[in-house]
Each structure stands twice: as C-alpha cells, then as structure tokens.
C-alpha cells in the first residue's frame, strides 16, 4: 500500500486531514533528542553486573579488583540500597520487585551489582572484574510446575509461586449451556513469550542538584508522571522536587511503562555522588531483562448448536509472569482485560479463570501492544471460532456473520461485564471479503486442493478495548483513570498545548494539533504540542492501551471548547454585539447576517490579553482533566491468504486485507501507518519471534541475531480499508487504534495456515509458525513433497 499524503502541515487542518507528521522533520534530520543523546557536565556512567544463573544464592561479592581500576567511582550493591530502603520497590502493577538483590538472584540477566565510572567502557570493564560467588539453586521455568507443591519457590519474599487466581463470568450458567450444546470444541493454545524489541533500549540520566535538592531524571518512560509519584513515594523526596523528563522515545510499545532497576540505581547514585549518572541498557541487556509479554497458556472451549449458534465460552489460563510484575492484589488487573475474550460475538454466558505463576524468568506478562491481555483474548476467541467452523463444516466467514453482535444491540453488555460502545462487525467483515474476493479465493482453494496444493484463508474479526479508562474500571485498575490537556493561546494567537500522555512514535504532535485546529481554527504550524515533562505538563497517566485519543484527545477537545466559549464572549465585545448573535466558523466570529465583518481567533487572543471585556478575566487558556465515561471498542476484520510450500514448509502470505474501524479518524495517514506497523509486528509474532528458555532458565538467544523481527522484505503488501462507526461517548467520536492490528492479526495468520492444513488433520499449531514446524507436520501427515 502506498501512503498518499495530500497536505503539508501548514494551515488549518482538522479531523480527517492527511497532513505530514510535524515531528518527522527532526527525526528525518537525525535531530531527535533521545536519552542517550543528552550529555551533562560532570556526567558519569553506570553499568550492571548481571546474573549468569536463573536461580542462585549470592554467597559473596568481591569488588576489590574492580575498585582499583582507574576511572571507577563507586560500586553499589543490594545491601547498600537496603539501608536506604531501595533494595525493593513497588511496581506499577501492585507487585514489588528487587532493584538489586541482597540474598539471591531469581532470573538470568538480573542486575546484581552496579558500577559507576568515568565512562561507559570503564564501567563495563570494572563490572567484568567483580567476583560474585553463587550457589546455584534449582530453578523453575514451567509455570505449571511452578504451581505444584514440590516446586522451588522463586521469590524470597513469598512462600508460593502463585501470583493470583482470578475469575470472571457466570460459571453455573456457562456449565449449563455447555451441557445443552450440540457441539463443544476445545483447544489448548500457547501464546509465546515475546520481547517488545523497540528501537531504543531503556535508559536514564539522573541528575541530583545538592543545592536545590531537586532530582531530575531523563528516562525512556511512557508514563512520566506516574513514575514521579512512585519515585517520590519510595525515596521520600517531595514530589515537587522530582522532575521526570521523557525526551524523544524510540518506541515503547508497552515495554516502557515500568520502573526498571537502572532508573532507581542511577537516581540513588546521583544523590550519593552529586553528579549526573547515565545508564543505558545495551541491546542484549535489554532483550534479556526488560519486561516481556504474553507467555500465556490458554485452554479454551466453545459450546454451540448444530446450526453454528454459539452458546457459551469457557477459558482457563496459566499466565507466566516470570519473577516480578505479577499483581500482588489477588483480584483484577493481573488478568488485565482478558475478559474481552467474548470478542465480537453475542455469547450468552462465559466463564474465565486465570492463574498467574512466578517462574525463574525475567519479569513479564504485561504490556506489548497490547497485552493488558487483549491480544491473548482476541487470539483465543478468533482461533476457537475458526476451529468451530471447521468442525461444523461451515464457512468461517458465515459462522462469524451468524454470531456477531448485531448493530442494533449496541451499547452491548457482554457476558463478562463490558459495555461495548458501538460496533458494526458485519459491515467490516463484508467489506474485507469484497476487497479480497473471498468467494473466488475459496473456489481457487478448492481447485488447488484437488491438485494437492496447500492454500489457506484466515479471518479474524476482533474487538479491541482501549482508552483506560472510566471510573467504573476502578475495580480493575485500582484507580480512577483520567487524562489531561492544557491549551494556552498567547496574545498573538500562537498556541502551546501540554498533555499528560507521552508519545513514543504515534504522532501526537500532529494529531493533537489537528484536534485543536479543528475546534479553534488555528493553523497547525501555530500549535506546539508538548508532552513528557512533569514540571511543565499537567498530571496525566501516560500513553499506553491506545488511550491517548480516547482520553487526552477528548481532553484536548474539551479544553478547546472551553476556550471557544470564552472567545465568543470576547468576540461579542469586539463586535459590539450580543453573544447569542455571534456566529463561529473555523477561526472566525461574526454577527449573524454580516459574515464580512469578522474577528479572527487571533484578534480575540490579542483582546483577551489587552482588552478583555468587563467582568471577564484576562488570558485565553483552559485545562481539562477528562474522566472518560467508558472505554472505546475499536474493531475490524482481517483476512489473510497463505500458500504453503510442500517441500520446505515455507509459508507465503500472498494477500492480507485489513478493514479497521476506530470511529472518526483524526489523521488517516497516521492511522494507516499505525496499522501497517502493528501488522508488521504481528507478522513477527505469527511467523518469527519467540523468547525461549531451557529448563535451567538459560535464555536461547537474547539478541537480534536470534530474535527475528520482520522488515518490509519479509512482510506482504498490507491492503487497508476502513469502516467508520463513531464512539457515542467520545467528544470527537474517535476510538483508539494503535494496537488493533497486533490484537487482531495473529489469529488471521494462524487461521490461514491451519485452514491450509485442516484437511490433513491439523487443528492447531502454536506460534511462531516456523517453516521447520510446518515441514515436520507435513512429514508426519505424509504430505511432504520431494519436488
Ligand atoms: N488516531 C487518529 N484517529 C483515531 C485514533 C487515533 O488519528 N481515531 C491517531 C492518534 O491521534 C495518534 C495515533 O493515531 O496520533 C495513535 O492514537 P491512539 O490509538 O490513541 O494510541 P496512543 O497514542 O495512545 O498510542 C499508544 C499505542 C500503544 S499502547 C502502543 S503499545 C504502541 C502504539 O501506540 N506503541 C508504539 N503505536 C506505536 N507506534 C510507535 N511508532 N511507537 C510505539 O512505541
Ligand atoms: Cu498494551 S502495550 Mo501499549 O499499551 O503501551
């Protein structure tokens, strides 16, 4: 697909305009400002000694040799952090985690000792001279084994590996419907462990000013304000003396929501040494120790009538959280938003149960575009529905059309408790079917099968849940979530708007400006968007869960409308008319009937500061903390066509059509870019990527040499289209979109491959669908060709 950009980022550009991304100029010129680009006077560097064992007692740490190396400034151990109460810190997910261990290590690659030196190389050299004596302990890497009585216990602070047990839905009703059903289909799925693999590894620079007592930390964070609060709570430094700055971020994709040990140790070291301390993870350090995602062992069952009517859904999950990042609160967030697993279907009853386990693996199990368990949920239901169709001998498209929640049922209350805002699932699927020529492809498949060729068609009609979130989510996340937007119009009509979110590549500088331009009629080049600095931006909860459009986008619209209300009063004063007689049209105010005699928003801005009407405060600005009334529920239908080579097991994705619906669109080019990026990521999930460990907890790989991420060369041409079903509760009718394709597409790829092999007796293959796996299956089924 070629992206056509029709408009320069100049002039008034509102909703739906395909303008170029304002931020791209600095990125294309290599002038972005990432954490590692920042150099402060007197700055020193931090490196970690990391554990070679997945589970071992620390018997002794000898730093003598390292200390004598020229350029070494300090060496910090867990014992030192313990004295200042920083050996353990709370995670943002309710659990706590080790910053540096005092007694034992719990995964391979864990930070053990920190070295501070004059430069990065000396720091790593010194780290290699530190002698840590370990006594290996028996590790556990299989979450099922971890939950057995006899298992070694991972955490020194717990006496069980059980992180939580969570369930939702009506078990009785579900079980009853399963008994009444004509068909029950059940299948196990393993959604493999993945790494986010953003371009920029995580890092921080902490700078403590001993005179003012202010701690400034530049870090790769998707949620700087939340990190500031956590830092204040753990360090006891007042929150107004901590400033977190997230400069440009080279991708986050969920992996930069957390607080990592490096952030904390660099802050501690800077306070101790009175010098700025930089820590930047290397690629392989990052790939071995930062937050991993998925690692979900799913067992799903679906009950239906002979005619294909789905009755009920039953799912049991064991989720592997590694050593940390589980949820100590045994209730809700641990299972995240997995309860969206009834998907796009009108299912009477459902019951899900998720059990979390600790293993001797790096912390894992939460976000990666988006795994607040939405990806796993969509994968499970879309695979199950496909298997059901095949079992019943029905066409998978027809089975879906039969069971979709019909448009007239929205707002729709799902069996697991969500109220879907809006949807028209059949429209999206039909559009995708038309675009790809579905029925012709089915004919082609039939003919090819007669000739012994392997071709498959896979559909996924997913429903996403984004925009964390409304107050009634309190039960799930433990806080009432909001988001902020502050807009200031200067006397000359130029704008600075600041947000609590933090983009990592999503184009907020452009799309937030478009929202303001839409409502206030100010040219986008006159609007500067700022995010990521806790000293200047209003408090916000950050960018993840595709929440920026649903929450901050809404806050921007509300702030702009507040400004417009005031601007109207000022315009009335300038035009010597009554406010009721003022007409507003894209940046211009005039008295009803005389459009030629107008005042611009810029005239109004100047008057707001120089000549405000009597009784009206000077200035033209507004701030909004927006409490979303509900989540938004974007959706879509994806269709994938594959051909499989019978000699090698190689899969070729011949065609892929993605029809997305994210309600009203702010910038179609950005939205398409997001979808293509996410499809490419999921191509990696389906065909290439997996983080694996042996039974001793040794990671296989842990660098880009072994962890294959796709490029434009491996991936097919993505063909995109849209339907538009606005969100009824969002001020602009928009829903989030960024994670739709990672949520929706893995099932489409796998469904296509299984569809190609079903007649050979293949029901399921776990991702990644490596050619050798397929070849082995073909061999087992006697279908390998020697040609
Ligand atoms: N947009 C739009 N119209 C809509 C919806 C969205 O024009 N109806 C635009 C938005 O204005 C914004 C972009 O699309 O510029 C994404 O908006 P949204 O869906 O609200 O998602 P967020 O901005 O909150 O981004 C978060 C999301 C997440 S959670 C992950 S994970 C992910 C993703 O963004 N990480 C990314 N996309 C990424 N893209 C890049 N380049 N880098 C990452 O780290
Ligand atoms: Cu769910 S990964 Mo994103 O939410 O940052």
Automatic annotation (TrEMBL):
InterPro entries: Ald_Oxase/Xan_DH_a/b, Ald_Oxase/Xan_DH_a/b_sf, Ald_Oxase/xanthine_DH-like, AldOxase/xan_DH_MoCoBD1, AldOxase/xan_DH_MoCoBD2, AldOxase/xan_DH_Mopterin-bd_sf, CO_Mo_DH_lsu. It comes from the Archaea. Pfam families: Ald_Xan_dh_C, MoCoBD_1, MoCoBD_2. GO terms for molecular function: anaerobic carbon-monoxide dehydrogenase activity; copper ion binding; iron ion binding; molybdenum ion binding. Keywords: Molybdenum, Oxidoreductase. This is Carbon monoxide dehydrogenase. Transmembrane segments: none annotated. Residues 29-138 form the Aldehyde oxidase/xanthine dehydrogenase a/b hammerhead domain. It comes from Candidatus Acidianus copahuensis.
